[in-house]
Amino acid sequence: MKRRIFIGLISLLFVVGIGSVGWAANNTADTSQLGSLLIFPKVIVAGDGDIHDTIIQITNTANQGVDVKCYWLFRNCCYDLAEEDPDHCGIPNCPWIDFELFVTKNDPVWFRASDGTPAGVPNFPPDYGDGELKCFAVNQDMKPIKWNYLKGEATIMGLYPTFAGKYNAWSFQVRGAKIGQQVGEAIPAPYPGGLDQHRIYLSGRKIQEGQTTGEPVKGYYDSCPKFLHVNFFANGAFYKRFNMPYDVVDEVPEHQRYAGMYGNVLGLVPCKQDFTNGAPPTVTKLEFDIYNEAEIGISSTWDCMECYYEEWFDDITEFTNVDKLQSDAGYMRVYSVGDPICDVKDRDGNVLVPSVQTGLVGVHLDKWEFQCWHRNADGDEVVDFNQQCYALTATNPFGSGRVRTDTITYTPGNP
Fold it and tell me: pTM for this structure?
């Protein structure tokens, strides 16, 4: 993928402009409300679940059961393959698997991504490694309805090395409709004999790309944030600053008493999505602005996203490392723009999929490393100098502003 990094101060005028957007306005998705649509932006499976796995929890807080339609979307590997073989694919392949489940009243359903148990849903294919999950309430015809009673959590676990972290799903409420009322818009089949499609709007108006207004929508979902705001500790921060447990510290050489920030991972998902067969992926340009504790815009960089995005911070920019950031803590602002530089083109330069703006949701994982210690058979605390332990925290970025052109299109019947 192409990427450019610009070092130096980021315009103060731009900072002031962002400040006028406001935090998580009404009718914008967040992670602290019940909703009708849930997005889990980070799902990981490795080794059939015996190395990494994700546990999904979906709770229906209503006193009545409801059907839920879900989509696993896998991490896109097409571009990695295309770098070695440009003819491997033209349009990036963003595979998905859909499934339905019925959630009874006040029921906290859960299942492992690796095998779909115990809920009996299709598993997330381990060959793809990571991706996302989208779920929304539907009626018996698999059409979307207002059901602002759903909540979701995901727990990411690793066994080699051992770690675990939990985050809340992004939740979207339906506005302008009654509970149980069908929402969205039916779209005729694109070809004779094909299946009808359905589109849901993440805005109160049908606003097309490049426009500012459009026809009102009676039943619509919360919009996606325009900006995501991430606080982080720099890679390498705090090493050798933490002491070991007080009663073993004298037994540990100074250079081996350490704990610190091993690394940060950012997972991002576009809110504009088309789950119909043969539909092109969502392609966009991601912009990243990085600030340190001195309020200095230390870096501005960009990357292209197709379908789904996950990167370690130091792969986004080296200025998230403590020596380059010049402080232990940092702040990252992320947003999406449509830019021809991220268009998907064929070998002759013809545009196959244009880059568009989309709202974003995501999750931030930070991984801490520290020296392992345990109690032996005598109850004494013993340091293991040959093994490092890890702790994982998973948090949701704050959102601000909103993008009003996002839609989700799918086929209610079997494809």
Answer: 0.86
